[in-house]
Specification:
The structure holds two protein chains of two kinds.
Chain A (H helix, E strand, L loop, with lengths): L1 H20 L25 H13 L22 H9 L2 E4 L8 E4 L13 H7 L18 H10 L15 E2 L7 E2 L20 H16 L3 H30 L4
Chain B lengths: L11 H9 L2 H10 L2 E3 L8 H20 L9 H10 L4 H28 L8 H23 L4 H13 L7 H9 L6 H32 L15 E3 H26 L29 H9 L4 E2 L6 E3 L1 H17 L1 H4 L11 H22 L5 E7 L7 E2 L4 E2 L8 H6 L3 E6 H26 L9 H16 L1
The chains are: A mainly alpha, B mainly alpha.
């Protein structure tokens, strides 16, 4: 039994060592840990927060950032009905074609369409943004150390630059950005987006909501994954106990 | 395996097949009644666990390949499509992704077991070498697999690692061109990596077959390191070890599942969720965790080797690093001839045991060093003017500009900075790594006086029981 504990500890140690080494870099201020409804093994998304976050994304972020891996139909996960999704999609126009005459044409988006990007291509996006490319937001929380915490921190971390930092035109100071310099102007201001559910219209609330939403965009499978995970772990734990019993029983004539 | 020595099976269908092709006899002999030392501890589970992981990786890998596209313009999107639109694609990919890590956890534990209990010693040298070959093939497979999603770390990891081969004199650059299929990591590289990533697991299967074959010729080693001498020392593999292995495997899978479902990206790097961009280099290029000790050894060689005080260089730092990294694995290959001590198990070799555990600790430290920027400073002290070498706590770097007013003082007493940085840490444990194999093992082989070893496995089990009984009193 002692030996088995040793081997389990060995594995645990091996993994502990590997968890933190994955995040080596990062010389900026560490983003504060936030409380998200989706963190932890039982975490789920808060549909109201997702809808508010989508609203912030749609009215603020989307003017520069694309979210090209998400289709309108995916918004069902936010609690919208089929009709509402159709209406949301119809607000956008997408290029389609060629038609019977070989012409490309514009039409209103359908639920099966992906979110159209604000710029035709990366070069156009850079040209319109002082040479900086606004990253696609479909995977942003998975693509940054700290995930949603980091995103919330960046959105609320704008400050006047300290004296030793010299900003070029088109640069801004953000204490959570690696190196402190960011090309994105302060995106959120208080009372910028009207909420229908009476939630506070503050920068902090906007930042939380849109981070919540973008975490969903990056990990839409999160709820299903965690729910399944709980069942799998329960099953495996029971199975392990059963197997331990079987093993004990079989070995009992030797002990 | 002539038909005459075969025992008949009662089931007529089984008997019909077995009399023509004795697969049932084979299974019965190798996995049914196969005599196995009765004193295995749970470290002996990891062979079976590694086998399970190999099968898991092949099954999930083939499933992923059905939806994946090996093309630089499409690979990242194809991977995301699997994550979002393919039914349970996220599950299969997360099992595969984390499976690589857990395969390595199992195999590293398996290798440690072999080292600790002397499983590499006569007559199991070839068995051990086949194991090291499997390990090498796994590293190649894992490396190429990591390139396939075509994220930033995929691209830049591939660039850094393939560039290593350019250090080989004369033919190096040609080898790199051949690996790339062009003049940089690009579409041909991705396509050949995909082809090879699909091929190598089956090569691994073949070598695993040889590994298991060799094992069944010599029989298993065991914690006492004493060969099994008769019936009282062994148990039939089934049901004793099939059930014990299954229990250990289920515990292992439970931890594995916890990562797949709750921390699927904890072992990976966030940068790999950014599509590969040849024009933007990530701040720190870090390989997957299971390569980090070797990466640290690679980076530890920061100096040219030649005749001191002249310009003559025999081995440039880059080649030196590559040689050290591959040398680290060659050490494992030749381990059976470096350690010729007659006693196998570290249980009865107190000095070997200590040095081996320090070695394992060193490998962990090397792993940590591999994950950190090379110039990271862990500790430093100033001799002379304090202000001139003030440390910026956030960055762990020496502030180069001394405050204006004290410029003068700094010039007068040039400060001496004593420091330990990441490179030095890696160098220290790299030296120990090779010292352990090349000096300490041969030395111990000649000098170490082992504790008395038990007469037989049976005796070892009885001794242990007696010790346990005495303990509980």
């Amino acid at each position: 039994m002692k030996k088995s504990i040793v081997s389990v500890l060995f594995v645990a140690f091996a993994m502990l060592g590997s968890v933190n080494i994955a995040h080596a870099a990062g010389d900026a201020v560490k983003p504060p840990k936030m409380e998200w409804s989706f963190s932890g093994p039982f975490g789920t998304y808060d549909k109201a927060a997702l809808q508010r976050g989508f609203l912030v994304f749609k009215s603020v972020c989307a003017s520069c950032h694309s979210m090209k891996r998400i289709a309108f139909r995916n918004l069902e996960a936010l609690g919208y009905s089929e009709g509402q999704i159709k209406a949301i999609a119809a607000e956008y126009t997408v290029m389609d074609g060629p038609d019977d005459e070989g012409e490309m044409f514009e039409r209103a988006a359908r639920p099966s369409d992906m979110f159209p990007s604000p710029f035709a291509n990366d070069a156009a996006a850079k040209y319109a943004n002082n040479g900086a490319l606004p990253p696609d937001l479909s995977l942003i929380t998975k693509a940054r150390v700290g995930g949603a915490d980091y995103l919330h921190a960046i959105l609320t971390g704008y400050e006047d630059a300290p004296e030793h930092v010299h900003l070029m035109p088109g640069q801004y100071y953000n204490k959570y950005m690696s190196g402190g310099v960011i090309a994105m102007p302060t995106p959120l201001i208080d009372d910028q987006v009207m909420y229908e559910d009476g939630s506070p219209t503050t920068v902090d609330q906007y930042a939380s909501d849109v981070s919540h939403f973008l975490n969903w965009a990056a990990e839409p499978e999160l709820e299903v994954r965690k729910r399944m995970g709980i069942k799998v772990i329960i099953f495996l734990t029971i199975f392990a106990f059963v197997m331990y019993g079987v093993k004990r029983k079989i070995w009992s004539d030797l002990h | 395996m002539a038909g005459g020595q075969r025992e008949k099976f009662k089931n007529p269908a089984v008997e019909w097949i077995d009399s023509r092709l004795p697969v049932f006899t084979l299974m019965q002999k190798e996995y049914g009644v196969f005599p196995t030392p009765k004193n295995f501890n749970y470290f002996w589970n990891f062979g079976a666990i590694a086998m399970f992981m190999l099968v898991t990786m092949i099954v999930t890998g083939i499933t992923l390949a059905m939806q994946y596209t090996a093309d630089t313009a499409l690979a990242f999107d194809a991977t995301e499509r699997i994550m979002r639109d393919v039914n349970y694609g996220w599950l299969i990919r997360y099992i595969h992704m984390n499976g690589a890590s857990f395969f390595f956890i199992a195999v590293y534990t398996h290798i440690f077991r072999g080292m600790y209990y002397g499983s590499y010693k006569q007559p199991r040298e070839l068995l051990w070498i086949l194991g090291v070959v499997i390990f090498l093939l796994m590293m190649a497979t894992a490396f190429m697999g990591y390139v396939l999603p075509w994220g930033q770390m995929s691209y830049w990891g591939a660039t850094v690692i393939t560039n290593l081969f350019s250090a080989i004199p004369i033919v190096g650059d040609d080898i790199v061109t051949l690996l790339w299929g062009g003049f940089s990591v690009d579409n041909p590289t991705l396509k050949r990596f995909f082809a090879l990533h699909y091929l190598l697991p089956f090569v691994i299967c073949a070598v695993v077959f040889l590994h298991v074959w060799a094992l069944h010729v010599t029989g298993s080693n065991n914690p006492s390191g004493v060969e099994a001498k008769g019936k009282q020392d062994t148990l039939p593999f089934h049901p004793y070890y099939t059930m014990k292995d299954t229990f250990g495997l289920v515990v292992f899978i439970t931890i594995y599942a916890a990562f797949v479902f709750f921390l699927p990206n904890a072992l990976g790097h966030p940068d790999n969720y950014i599509p590969a961009n040849p024009l933007v280099t990530p701040a720190h290029i870090v390989p997957e965790w299971y390569f980090l000790p070797f990466y640290a050894i690679l980076r530890a060689i920061t100096f040219d080797i030649g005749i001191p005080f002249t310009d003559i260089v025999f081995i440039e730092a880059k080649l030196g690093g590559v040689l050290a990294m591959f040398g680290a694995i060659v050490m494992l290959l030749i381990m059976p001839w470096l350690d010729t001590h007659p006693v196998r198990s570290a249980r009865y070799r107190p000095q070997f045991k200590k040095l081996l555990l320090v070695f394992v600790f060193g490998v962990f430290v090397l792993g940590y060093a591999g994950s950190q920027p090379a110039d990271r400073v862990y500790w430093q002290t100033c001799i002379g003017s304090e202000a001139a070498c003030a440390v910026d706590d956030h960055h762990g770097e020496v502030a180069h500009a001394a405050p204006a007013g004290e410029d003068h003082a700094a010039e007068e007493k040039a400060p001496m900075v004593l420091k330990v940085d990441n490179t030095m840490l890696a160098q220290f444990f790299t030296v120990y790594y090779f010292l352990f194999f090349l000096v300490l093992l041969p030395l111990l082989s000649r000098k170490e006086v082992a504790l008395p070893i038990p007469e037989s496995i049976h005796q070892a089990v009885l001794d242990k029981k007696a010790a346990k009984a005495a303990d509980s009193k």
